[in-house]
Specification:
Blueprint (H helix, E strand, L loop, with lengths): L2 E3 L5 E7 L4 E5 L10 H7 L4 E5 L18 H14 L6 E5 L1 H13 L10 E5 L10 H26 L7 H6 L1 H12 L3 H12 L9 H4 L6 E6 L3 H13 L3 E6 L6 H4 L1 H16 L23
Parallel strand pairs: 3-4, 3-5, 5-6, 6-7, 7-8
Antiparallel strand pairs: 1-2, 2-4
Helix pairs in contact: 2-3, 4-7
Length: 301
């Protein structure tokens, strides 16, 4: 069973397929290494693709210390995968919680004035709980979800969180695919999930407090959101405005887990992005088109 070691000693399970330019996939809270199977099968025809289970997700380690579950740990685990496998500036692709990790990786390791440690960042379904109007409530809900997992188990959690308003789009379009997603979520370790929910989801900073740092990201960025993923739409637009080399794609009648819900469209958009990055054709936004601030004309949201 292939594993690599994080910078604080946690063993991370990974799988890889294909050869070529490396791509690292970072899963969401409700996923694990299996969540990227449609992308692993598609992109491994042309790329060296790596998927891994984050700390707290089997068969990776389940650290007992709650302090081991934080935004910074997830960010640095992306770096650990890159270092542990000797990857040369991979494309980093994240969904939801994994997109937060990819974004923070970009802020730390792909900032203006420093040699970038990734070729590009893809941020899909990014922004839940980040907007100032939702931030405090999202933290409270995250702690309540951690309590739910501990008290009632993963099956009960799947029936609530797993069937949330940005998940039923997947269920409506692809019942078999949705059933597989729900089954895999129910198989997660309850304590690892609870500590991730409380430590990462419940304590991560609002992205709106980090706009100046976000704006320093100096690699190509693709932002993807479903138009019915209500908690992510506004933040996705903010990120597009803040990052000079960002592009934004909105998938119609789509929810949160868009790599599974709309795999063909997701793969097409990401594949085109990779191609343009590698040709040097994904440029910076013309400053004549940019708004007066990262939130648009008028400044604050």
């Amino acid at each position: 069973m292939p594993k690599l070691t994080s910078h604080d000693g946690v063993q991370l399970y990974y799988e890889e397929a294909g050869t070529g330019v490396p791509v690292v996939f970072v899963h969401e809270f409700a996923g694990d290494w299996r969540s990227w199977e449609p992308q692993m099968r598609h992109f491994s025809r042309s790329y060296r693709c790596i998927t891994y289970s984050a700390r707290g997700y089997l068969p990776s380690d389940l650290p007992a210390d709650p302090a081991s579950y934080s935004q910074d740990h997830w960010r640095d685990d992306v770096r650990a995968v890159i270092d542990g496998l000797g990857l040369d500036r991979p494309h980093v692709v994240g969904l939801s919680q994994g997109a937060f990790a990819a974004l923070h990786f970009g802020m730390r390791y792909c900032s203006r004035g420093e040699p970038p440690e990734a070729r590009s960042l893809t941020l899909a379904g990014v922004g839940s709980g980040a907007h100032p109007a939702h931030y405090s409530n999202f933290q409270c809900i995250s702690l309540a979800n951690a309590d739910l997992i501990r008290s009632e188990g993963m099956d009960a959690f799947v029936e609530t969180y797993g069937h949330g308003p940005s998940r039923i789009q997947h269920q409506r379009k692809d019942p078999r695919g949705f059933a597989e997603y729900a089954k895999q979520l129910a198989e997660h370790d309850a304590e690892g999930s609870a500590m991730t929910m409380a430590g990462y989801q419940g304590k991560r900073p609002s992205l709106y407090s980090l706009v100046d740092t976000i704006a320093r990201i100096d690699v190509p960025v693709l932002i993807l959101t479903g138009d019915e993923d209500e908690l992510c739409i506004e933040t996705s637009v903010m990120l597009k405005r803040a990052i000079a080399k960002a592009g934004l794609a909105v998938l119609p009648q789509s929810g949160h887990g868009i790599n599974l819900e709309e795999p063909a469209l997701f793969n097409q958009l990401v594949g085109d992005f990779f191609h343009r990055v590698e040709l040097g054709r994904w440029g910076e936004r013309d400053p004549r088109t940019a708004p007066a601030s990262p939130w648009g004309p008028g400044g604050k949201p």
